[in-house]
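lol forgot to send this yesterday, sorry. struct tokens for the thing we talked abt
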């Protein structure tokens, strides 16, 4: 306890974990690459880049399968388990090492050991240990998720808030008076296993970002992120590469955080708000006390199922804003710090996957919407090739959306109340259900348009066939009346019979072609002739238009 005359010491974070989850839209592969999927192209080019395919934790040796992996697996419902982990080994073909029917493919690079962040100019750099860096690919989705997990010990709470606010930025939102990137860290460096700097941020390079936006009408990402993703390259850049990506959302990346605090019960209401909204609130600016997100902070974003605010505990608070997910607890709690059975294990496994799946849903829906917009923008109604390409894109997108609905889209993923509540809270803040309804309605509208266009074309074809059939009926009845032998062709020489056959065929082909060319005028003539109320003058005028090749 602190006396009124003494100031409470600044809060310390004994253990800090943070995981960035950055969704990116990946463009379809070019024809030169062939009919392979994105992750297969990454496998095919292994050896030219640091990304390696990562098998899941279900290794051949059961002794290497840890309890935290088991707890993660049984947290989810069976259909979610099949989505995340695939089928059993008994169903794999002989000699195959890949999980059967697993739609998620993970790649990891292990050449980076430390993330060095200088938050402000002149401040001491903070070194964060890189736990892992992964890429998640998904079958049937033009989507890839970058995951970067880092950790550190013994940081001040102010430093943690600054890291959460400044680290996950793809590009600067502007520049301050000194030329530094606005809202970004002053410097970010990836340090390799040998201690050498592998890549460094360039947010202060104002001309680079201005020039790129001016030329390409799209933002450029900072160099430390571009180097991390290679051989994936930005779609609008001049850098060569088969795997090209586009940004989907705002430059602030979704993030999850685990914060083990000394005496979390001692935090004031303002400190809780600043910590929970750390990725949104500038650490140096006053708290906007009149904003609804601040006024109703606990009601909107906090889940206090495991928060008792007592000495006995537990004192673990779950905070989710949609773009961020955070678990804050007491560093003196053995259960909160347990990396095998406790909250730390749950944060790094169950809760991370919950956050990942919620953002996969949102990102996939945004990609579907973008594909529809691109198809409409590329449509030129007067160009037949453009119309055919539009139909192919819409039907392909509709088929992919159906597979997404039945393979990836679900509302219930766990029978455990706290896991399911976390997923619903995250999805609700991201507005995934409303976004799904919007994309579904847009897809249905496009599908209905294609169906109506097909029906229109079919009706036009039926009209033409009807006209041709009527003309053929006249010929058939006439020749049938004369017994099909008006002229005795069988009595002539072979060349005469051949000549007569060619001439007759030419006449009938000409009649059919005439009927096709004039089918609209002929159909109008049939309508006028069948109309009992139409005067004789109108019927004669319609016949004259057909005979004189005038437009109806």
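and heres what i got for the seq, position by position
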């Amino acid at each position: 306890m602190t006396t009124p005359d003494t100031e409470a010491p600044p809060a310390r974070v004994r253990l800090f974990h943070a995981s960035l989850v950055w969704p990116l839209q990946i463009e379809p592969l070019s024809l030169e690459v062939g009919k392979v999927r994105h992750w297969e192209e990454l496998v095919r080019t292994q050896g030219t880049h640091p990304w390696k395919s990562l098998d899941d934790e279900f290794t051949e040796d059961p002794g290497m399968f840890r309890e935290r992996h088991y707890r993660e697996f049984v947290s989810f419902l069976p259909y979610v388990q099949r989505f995340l982990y695939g089928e059993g080994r008994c169903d794999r073909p002989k000699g195959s090492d890949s999980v059967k029917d697993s739609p998620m493919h993970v790649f990891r690079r292990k050449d980076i050991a430390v993330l060095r962040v200088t938050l402000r100019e002149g401040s001491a750099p903070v070194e964060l240990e890189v736990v892992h860096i992964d890429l998640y690919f998904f079958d049937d989705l033009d989507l890839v998720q970058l995951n970067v997990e880092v950790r550190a010990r013994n940081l001040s709470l102010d430093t943690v808030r600054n890291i959460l606010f400044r680290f996950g930025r793809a590009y600067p939102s502007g520049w301050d008076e000194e030329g530094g990137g606005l809202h970004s860290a002053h410097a970010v460096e990836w340090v390799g296993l040998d201690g050498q700097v592998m890549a460094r941020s360039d947010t202060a390079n104002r001309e680079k970002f201005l020039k790129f936006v001016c030329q390409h009408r799209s933002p450029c990402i900072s160099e430390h992120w571009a180097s991390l993703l290679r051989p994936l390259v930005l779609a609008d850049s001049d850098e060569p590469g088969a795997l090209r990506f586009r940004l989907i959302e705002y430059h602030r990346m979704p993030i999850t955080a685990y914060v083990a605090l000394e005496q979390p019960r001692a935090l004031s209401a303002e400190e809780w708000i600043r910590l929970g909204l750390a990725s949104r609130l500038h650490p140096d600016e006053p708290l906007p006390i009149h904003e609804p997100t601040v006024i109703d902070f606990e009601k909107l974003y906090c889940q206090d199922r495991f928060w008792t605010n007592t000495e006995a505990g537990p004192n673990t608070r779950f905070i989710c804003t949609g773009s961020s997910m955070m678990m804050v607890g007491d560093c003196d709690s053995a259960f909160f710090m347990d990396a095998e059975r406790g909250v730390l294990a749950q944060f790094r496994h169950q809760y991370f996957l919950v956050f990942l799946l919620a953002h996969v849903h949102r990102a996939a829906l945004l990609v579907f919407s973008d594909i529809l917009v691109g198809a409409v923008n590329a449509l030129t109604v007067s160009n037949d090739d453009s119309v055919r390409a539009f139909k192919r894109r819409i039907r392909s997108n509709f088929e992919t959306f159906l597979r997404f609905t039945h393979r990836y889209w679900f509302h219930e993923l766990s029978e455990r109340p706290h896991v399911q509540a976390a997923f619903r809270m995250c999805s609700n803040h991201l507005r995934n259900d409303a976004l799904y309804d919007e994309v579904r309605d847009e897809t249905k509208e496009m599908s209905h348009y294609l169906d109506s266009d097909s029906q229109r074309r079919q009706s036009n074809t039926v009209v033409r066939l009807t006209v041709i059939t009527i003309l053929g009926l006249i010929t058939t009845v006439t020749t049938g009346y004369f017994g099909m032998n008006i002229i005795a062709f069988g009595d002539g020489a072979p060349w005469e019979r051949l000549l007569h056959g060619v001439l007759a065929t030419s006449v009938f082909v000409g009649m059919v072609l005439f009927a096709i060319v004039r089918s609209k005028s002929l159909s109008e003539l049939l309508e006028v002739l069948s109309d009992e109320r139409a005067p004789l003058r109108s019927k004669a005028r319609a016949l004259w238009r057909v005979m004189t090749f005038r437009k109806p």
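Residues 12-448 form one domain. anyway ping me if u want another try
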